[in-house]
Amino acid sequence: MPGMWSRAAALAADTPPQRHKAVDFLRAASITAVVLGHWLMAAIWVDADGTHASHLLALSPWTQWLTWAFQVMPVFFFVGGYANGVSWDSALRTNQSYRDWLYGRIGRLCRPVFPLLLFWAAAAWIARAAGVPAEIIRIASITALVPTWFLAVYFLVVILAPLAHAAWRRFGMATFWAPAAVAAVLDLLFFGAGVREPGWANYFFIWIAVHQLGFAWRAGRFSARGMALAWCLTGLAALIAMTEFGPWPRSLVGVPGEEISNTTPPHLPLLPLAAFQFGAVMLIENRLRRWLKRPAPWTTAVLLNGTIMTLFLWHSGSMMLSYGLSIWLGGIGLGLFPGSAIWWAMRPLWVLIFLAMTMIFLSLFARLERGSRASASAPHPARMICGLLVGGAGIAQLAMFGIGGDGPGGLRLIPLLLALGGMITALAPGPARTSH
User: Fold this and answer.
1) Which domain holds residue 349?
2) 171 part of a folded domain
3) Which of 324-338, 379-393, 403-417 has the lowest mean pLDDT?
């Protein structure tokens, strides 16, 4: 850890003065909040009847209010929009091709996923051979791989980012309201007519709408305090109205056992949540930028950003491995019923245990996050796009249904091969290009 801090401090000291440090900080902060939320809400305990696995949101319904603080994926997506806008504008200024730009963006997204999928494929195969029930393998692998869901969406967002940016420059906020309107129609069909299948398209329409807010942020469209406050208050009011008087549940993440989830597929409450968070960021932006001029907070942001994908991808698996080790040791530390006062008092200790386990994987795999550089051998854009779409489809299946199944070795082999093969196709260098 001291070595990581030293490297981060050196990078922080070399930061160009024009860099918008708040963007980097908010990316790290949003993912860290999601990680902490997952670590707090998992509910596994051991009693005389054996080992039980549930979720705090189901056992203690009052905790569903906490999801309003910990569901910060909208921040990640509009921060991504800001960063994609900066990156694409830089590519245009330097005459960098879409081919090289895309290749430079996808490496950090894809490479950290390979060891995660291979590790859990091996773990599922070994567990099945050792006689572990298939249902336990399924639950454990779903929990470990569910953080990868956003990649299936974000691959498409990155592919379309230059087109989305061009649309923003021509049509402005219409590029937010148009997909938001489509999402509203799909939710009307979902809840009003019982037509649910088209609702899965809201994985795209809701998150691309949120992504467009990043372009609005960069353009300074709503930086005035009054406008920012309007976004914040209107979003909060709409969110309260929707979840109190509409068909949408209060929890802003899925609750095991409940038929309707605001995230699977995404539903309209995520848009007022995004509006509230967007307005809040606009309100604190200047203070945040001043605070990040200090060495310690900016170095922390640099350190987290250098390992954020690895942290996000491995945090749930590290939690399951920690619980599994405890169960193997006779249930040590798991004798408390989730939600009790003493259970909450012990939660910080468990968070430290999960962090220690995650640090093992950070030390092994964080180096894979070093971004791909534009290369004379970058593959053709069509190959990268096809690979990302196929890989995203496989990842989505694994995140939703787990890696254990009825295939060879007890694995769900087809989605695993789609995920791995698609990303390899996207990343594998193409033939060298010659200059004329």
Assistant:
1) 2-162+214-220+294-427
2) no
3) 403-417
